[in-house]
Write a structure and sequence with these properties.
The chain is mainly alpha-helical. It is 63% helix and 2% strand. The chain has 30 helices and five strands. A hairpin with a 2-residue loop joins strand 4 and strand 5.
Amino acid sequence: MFGVLGPVTAWDDAGNVIDLKGPRHRAVLARLIIARGRVVPVGRLVDDLWTAPPAGAVGAVRTFVAALRRALEPERPPRARPRLLVTEGPGYALHTGDVDAWWFENAANATSPAGLEEALAQWRGPAYADFADEPWTQAERSRLAELRLHTVERLAEARLSRGLAAEAVPDLDAHVSAHPWRENAWRLLALALYRSGRQGDALAVLRRARTLLVEQLGVDPGPSLQRLESDILRQADHLTGDTAARVWSRTAAAYDRTVASGARSRLESTAGMLRDLALTGGGGLEAAREHRMAAITASEELGDPELTARVIGAYDVPAIWTRSDDPYQAAEIAAAAERALIALPHAPGSEGREIGTREAGGHDAARARLLATIALESRGARSTRGPEAACQAEAIARSLDDPALLAFALNAVFMQTFTRTGLAPERDKIGTELITLSARHGLGAFEILGHLVRLQALSAVANFPAADRHASAAEHLAERHERPLVNVFTGWYRVLRQAATGRASDTDYREAATLLDGSGMPGLERGLLPLALLSLRVQDDQPALTEPMDWGPYEPWARPLILLAQNRPADAAAAIRRVPDPPRDLLQEALWCLFGRAAIAVDDRAAIRRAHTALAPAAAELAGAASGLLTVGPVRTHLAALTKALRSGRR
C-alpha cells in the first residue's frame, strides 16, 4: 500500500511502514505514483529531482530505483523480474493499484455518510506533503485538495439528506473557517444550523459570509446564499427537509403506538419494508440483506407456515445479476422456502398432486412466490430444482392471472435460463414480456428489469442500437422511481459498447468500477474489474496483467492466462487441469473463452475439446456481452481458434 495523502510512504502487507531511504528515493516513488502506471523516462526523473543535475544523475536515479525495489520486494530472488517497480523502454513505471489517493478518488463517489467519512479518513495531511514545493506535484496536489473539499461538502449534503443536520454542523464550521471563499460551504452550514433549530445562528452565518465577501472580495453573495437567507426569514416549508420525511416519521410513530410489539403483522410489515429498502440500493440493499433472514427465522419460530410464506414471498425484489451477493444466506432462504412450501396446508384429498394445481387449498399465490424464491436463490446451481421451481411458479402465476406474481415468476425463469451457453434469445423473450406486462400494470421495478434483461440479451448478439434504447428507457424509469442501481448497469454497458468496437481502455473500466462503490452488490463487484481489464487484453491478443489483483470468483479461469503471461507454461497446464466448468450465469461464455485460449496455448487437447463443445451453441454471440458489462470478442473467433488447434493435432 502506498500513501501520498500526507507524507509519501509505503506499508507492507502486515501494515508496517517500509523504509524508503532518503528524500530522493521517496521523490522517485512519488513521481511514478503521479504517472499512474505510465512510463516516466529517466531523463524526466533527473529533471524533476534536480534543478541543476549533477554529472552522475542518471546513475543516481538507477541507484534509487534499485534501493526502492529491494525495499518494496524484499523477498524477490536475485535477478528475478521486479513486479512493482519495472523497467519499461526509456524509463520506469510503478505497477500497482494500491494507492491511498486512488482509493480516495473511488470512495469519494459514495453516497452514504459512512462511505464519505471513510474516504476522508484516508487523509494524513496535505497530499505529497514532503514535496509541496516541487513543480511536478502542483497539479496533482491541487486536484486532490479540491476533491477533498468537495467531498467534505458532499458529506454534509449526505448528512442533511438523512436528517443528520446537527452532525453536519461541527465539520462545516471548521470547513468554512479554513476555506471562507466557498459559498456552497456557507450555504450548507446555514442550512444545517436552521434544521438543527438554530435559526438565529443560521442567519448570523449568512451575514458573516456576506461581510467577508463584500469587504474582502468586493462581491455580493451569490444567488444561492441570497435565496437561502430569504427562505429562512420567511421560514419556507422546504427548508425543514423533505415533506415525505415528516409524514414518514409521524406514521411510524403512530404505528409504534397502535400495533402491539409482538403482533405478527409487524413481521409482515418488516418484510415489506425490507423489500422497499433493498430497492434503494447501496446501504439499503445491504441492510435488507442483513435483516431478511432474521425476519424469516422469527416467522418460522412462531410455527405459522402461512405467515412464513408471506414473509418470504413479500421480498419480490427484481434481480438482474446471476451471482448471489451472499451464497450462504441464499441457501438458507431457499431451504426456508422449501420448508414453508411443505408446511402450507393442502386442500383435502390434494396430497400427491403436483404443486401448483388450483386445488391446493387456496394458497396458490403463496406457493408460487415460494417457488420463485427458491429459483432465484438457487441461481447458478447445477441442480434441477431451480429450473423446476421456476417453471412451476410461472405456471401458477399464469393460471391465477396475477400480473405482479407473473413478473416475479418470470424473473425466476430468467435466472434459470443458463443451463448452457447461447441462450440470450430466450432471455430476450422474457425481457420483452416483462416490459409489456409491467408497463400495462404499473410494475415499475419489473419494467426496469425487463429493459435490463433486453439490454443484456441484445448486447450478446451485438445489436447495440436496440440495446442503447433499452439502456435509456431503464435510466428514465430509474430516475422516475428512484432506483439508483440502474446506473451501475447502464454505465458498465456503455463501456462494453466501446469495448466491442475496440474503443475502450483500462481507464474506462476503472472509472466504471467507481459506480460499484457503495452499491451493496458484492456478488457483482468482486473480481469484476480485473476480469474486465483481462477481457480488453484478450481482445487485443495481449498477455494478461500479472500485477496482484482480487480476481474473486473468476480466479480459476484467469489463473492459467496469468501463469502464461509470467512464462510459466507448465504451471498453466497444471492449473487448466483443475479448472471447473464455469457457473451457469451471465459470464459463462466469457469464462469458457478464457479457458479455451489458455488450453490452446498449452496444447491441452481434452480442454480444447471441452471448451469447443461448451461454446458451440453460442457461435452467434459476443462472448461475455450477455452480461451487459464486458466482452472477450466474438465466440466464433474463439471457436475458430479451437477448431484450428484440434485439426492441427491430427496431422
